[in-house]
Transcriptional regulator, PadR family (Asanoa ishikariensis), 360 residues
Amino acid sequence: MLDLAILGFLYDERLHGYDLRKRIAALTGHVRPIADGTLYPLLKRMEAGGLLTRELEPGQIAAPRHMLSLTAAGRTALLDRLRDPDELYITDENRWFVLLAFLRHLADPPAQAAVLRRRLHFLTQPASFFWDGDRPLRAADFDDHFRQGLFAIATATTRTELKWLRETLVTLSGAGTDQA
Amino acid sequence: MLDLAILGFLYDERLHGYDLRKRIAALTGHVRPIADGTLYPLLKRMEAGGLLTRELEPGQIAAPRHMLSLTAAGRTALLDRLRDPDELYITDENRWFVLLAFLRHLADPPAQAAVLRRRLHFLTQPASFFWDGDRPLRAADFDDHFRQGLFAIATATTRTELKWLRETLVTLSGAGTDQA
DNA sequence: GGAGCATACCTAGACTTCGAGGTATCTCGG
DNA sequence: CCGAGATACCTCGAAGTCTAGGTATGCTCC
């Protein structure tokens, strides 16, 4: 998930690690930013894997910076990840939201395909949190305030996403200018 | 996070692993249920740690079942976890939602404290996804449909939770019947 | 001029969860 | 009676992330 975010942010910008770290924290809404010990070793691995390159710069505020940019392989890797159906079938919901943040880098048809897959997931998966067998649950079915809150939050999130998915499919359908 | 969910579900019920697995999947809304290879070894570790015990039962549908129940230490562990301020400061948002699902096991005053901490987090953390410096962002600030969707979903989720937090604090304040 | 703080990067070990396999039991259809 | 499928549990190695330490630079305030 982290590597997807890194590829996404570097796709059209040149950033250094410290900056990247702040942007990732903002994107994922994490309470604490991701740990240094997570980000920097990953950047090294990605560099070793030929996905990005770094240039040392003097550093405008304090210590010298390692400015990072994607290689051609790195840009291809992002586009492949964005198109990959497996990115949806992941335990961590954050994964899909990170993907959403960078789906703009894909041309309409493959982006539409990703949105369609996501919608299909909602329609076919029972989403068992919201159902008791065939009966849709209501907040009143929970006898404590806490699960009622959890239910309200989950419902709001799902409803908003479904609404957006519907609108998006209408917008995207027909407008096919294949680039990626 | 998984162990918190296990403690929560077993607090007032006796379940076997397979059932637990389905409930956890439903609770966290994970696309794929958690892997067997994750759950069963964890259950063994928790048993070795004295948090739960198992009894073998013949199995009503198929293979024999290992019925699990919490020990006194296990129940104490859950209450401690629910009260632990650190459970909020975790990168994974799921953590807080799992906690919310079982907060009913706490008496009012400590539950209220957890809710207060969560609200404080929203009010003090810049929540940088929603702000450009001091200016609140709007959907129109994003020039692609995908980030607009992401923004809409994040906004709906946050707004719903903040509304619930406000209501809950009104409900809980004053009603102090200390049990846990 | 030195203490404190933000910037900027790094290492090593540990923990959690995943992925890909495997075994055994029971029911039901053919 | 045998194969398919759901139930129910298990092992082992790999991947991803965290925790807890560390180094070095430049600014600001006293």
